[in-house]
Each structure stands twice: as C-alpha cells, then as structure tokens.
Task: inverse folding
C-alpha cells in the first residue's frame, strides 16, 4: 500500500509525464510543419514514450491500492523560435523531470517505501538516457553548420538518428 504522501507525489509525477508527452507532441508538430520531418518522427516517438511513462505510474498507483487520478491537460508551448530552440527547451524539460523524479525518491525514503523507490529506479535510468540524448542533439548544432546549404537537412537527419 501507499502512504498518502507517496500517493500524492506519484499522481503529480504521472501528470508531469503526461505533460511531457504533450510538450513533445507540440514540438513534433512544429518540426513537421517546418520541414524537419525526420526529427519530427523522432519526437512523435518521444511523445509516445512519455505517454507510456505516464501510464506505468498510473497503473502502479492502482496496483498498490491507491487512487490514480487522470491528469488535466494544460496548454503547452506550440511555437518555437528555431530548430535549435526546440532542443534547448527539450533539455530543460528533461532536467526538470529528473528533478521531479528525485523528489519522488526522496519522499519514498522519508516514508520507508522501498517498493516505490525500487519502481522509480527505472525512471532514474531513463532520465539519464533522455538527458544525454537531448544534450547530444545540442552538440550536433555545434558540429553542423545550420547556415550551410544543406545544414538544416543534415541536422534533421543526424538528430533523428540519436534515439
Ligand atoms: Fe519520462 O522520460 Fe523523460 O521526461
């Protein structure tokens, strides 16, 4: 079973994952309409992965005898200043999610909930990977000159190969 504190913070984390899915969806749509089709596919896939992260927590709450709350869907950012800006924001979002996960684990420890802590360790590894991928995308903006003739095309191709 879950303590009230752990149940609340898990519902909050479920909402954060659901929001992350919608944020990636908006980014994918922006990339799609600006001609970055390969990277758009990559972020559509990320949006689906975040939806799975959400569902995994949602079901865990129920499995542990808690009440899983369907999160509300807020407005997300739809427009971006540039191709690069999408990944600057993606990295900031991933760092914020990592910090939120760390808070869930701190709560588990404070309440001696080792089952939930164990469950959350999967997310720790996942975040490490996703932060790395977002950083790699930004590195590619340093390596490939976006102003070269086919710079945007190359960036679109190379970034889509990261994940
Ligand atoms: Fe849910 O993995 Fe990133 O945010």
Result:
């Amino acid at each position: 079973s879950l303590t009230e504190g752990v149940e609340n913070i898990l519902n909050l984390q479920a909402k954060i994952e659901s929001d992350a899915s919608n944020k990636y969806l908006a980014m994918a749509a922006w990339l799609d309409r600006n001609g970055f089709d390969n990277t758009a596919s990559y972020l559509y896939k990320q949006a689906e992965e975040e939806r799975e992260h959400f569902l995994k927590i949602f079901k865990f709450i129920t499995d542990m005898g808690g009440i899983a709350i369907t999160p509300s869907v807020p407005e997300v950012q739809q427009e971006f200043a540039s191709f690069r800006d999408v990944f600057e924001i993606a990295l900031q979002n991933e760092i914020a999610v990592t910090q939120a996960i760390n808070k869930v684990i701190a709560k588990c420890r404070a309440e001696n909930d080792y089952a939930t802590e164990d469950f959350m360790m999967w997310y720790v590894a996942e975040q490490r990977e996703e932060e790395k991928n977002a950083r790699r995308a930004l590195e590619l903006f340093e390596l490939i000159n976006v102003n070269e003739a086919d710079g945007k095309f190359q960036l679109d191709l190379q970034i889509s190969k990261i994940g």
Notes: Residues 17, 20, 50, 53, 94, 97, 126-127, 130 surround hydroxy diiron-OXO moiety (CB under 6 Å).
